[in-house]
Amino acid sequence: MTMSNGNPDAIRVGVIGAGLRASGFFRDIPxxxxxxxxxxxxxxxxxxxxxxxGELIAVxxxxxxxQAAVAKRWAPGAHQAExxxxxxxxxxxxxxxxxxxxxxxxxxxxxxxxxxxQSLPLMLEKPxxxxxxxxxxxxxxxxAVGGSTTLVGFVLRYTPFYSKVREIVQSGRxxxxxxxxxxxxxxxxxxxxxxxxxxxxxxxxGGWMVEKCCHDFDILSHLLDSRPTRVFxxxxxxxxxxxxxxxxxxxxxxxxxxxxxxxxxxxxxxQHSPYSESNLPDxxxxxxxxxxxxxxTFTATMAQPRTTRRIRIFGTEGMLxxxxxxxxxxxxxxxxxGGRDFTEExxxxxxxxxxxxxxxxxxxxxxxxxxxxxxxxxxxxxxxxIDAVLTALAVQSSAASGQPVDLxxxxxxxxx
Length: 416
What we know:
- This protein has 416 residues and is α/β, with parallel strands linked by helices.
- It has helices spanning 20-24, 47-51, 53-59, 64-73, 86-92, 108-117, 132-144, 160-171, 188-194, 202-205, 208-211, 214-224, 245-255, 263-268, 359-371, 382-401, 407-415, and strands at 11-16, 37-43, 81-83, 98-101, 122-124, 150-152, 177-187, 228-236, 283-290, 295-304, 308-315, 319-323, 328-334, 342-348, 405-406.
- It has three domains: 11-154 and 361-381, NAD(P)-binding Rossmann-like Domain (Rossmann fold), CATH 3.40.50.720; 157-240 and 278-354 and 387-415, 2-Layer Sandwich (Dihydrodipicolinate Reductase, domain 2); 241-277, no CATH class.
- It is built from 17 helices and 15 strands.
- Helix 3 runs antiparallel to helix 4 (64-73), helix 7 (132-144) packs across helix 17 (407-415) and helix 8 runs parallel beside helix 12 (214-224).
């Protein structure tokens, strides 16, 4: 793969799951590696998705000339072998330098396990699995090879915003952290996404907390350098509850006004209406106790005006609050003399132009440099992916039972 001058000759990558998320990993290839990356093999059960994968990659490029070049470079048959099954790809393509797994959540494990057995650098989309049994299978596979080179797609860890928050927390400027408030609000487009295709089926997605909010549980652990030990949660569908058919239709017509087609087209893409029977909540609140003694609350709400993530961190020496949308952090510190005055500091965050608040470019760079043999700068490995799913599963279990859940037993089932 590497020429005598140290530059990569070719990075032969396999892709399992020819969807939008997989295509995003080809947008921010680091400078000097663009011409080296080759899609050697592509697997997806849908032949139309395989045929359109090059175009899907192209539309993520911002420059029209780049779009045309990318579409031509990764056109069907240009380089890659095509398969309907990812295991067949891994059985027949034994000369890969790296693998991307971006299938529906419940399908991750067999592909990841086989990639680990071949010691392939692996980009594994979150959530890494959807059940405790599958998490244990991943950990056994990792242990069998003495530790895999698996990067988990926890893009929040790579964003300038959360990188700065972590830097401040770890610096000690806030003193000992006492508690955290965090929330994620889903705007209409992201809300609709939870009701489309496999994400609506909790057997395939793992549930809302696993599918979407494992990001949020992971970033809390990352910021605090600690894992949750106990959780309690409440969830329900207050707005997305069964409605008469006529009212459902009116609400679909309103929802379709944001440019996603008429109401009948929108309904055809969904397994069922959000306003009919569903096992998805539209709001959920979780309370988490971390091993280092920090208490945290996390709130997620669907059908909001815009998608936002906000966080407030309270320490013995000061507090922090910030928003990924506003791209800003505010710090407040009390009067050391004990008076009513306080000092305030504002920090603007330069997020860049890549997706996920600037995190995509940093995550992609880490993966492609690992694939090229240029070192491992991953910020989220397999254990991080497992712990986030364990927390999400515990949160969902608590909401279902109405009781707190201790994570020690779940962890023991995975790690032994």
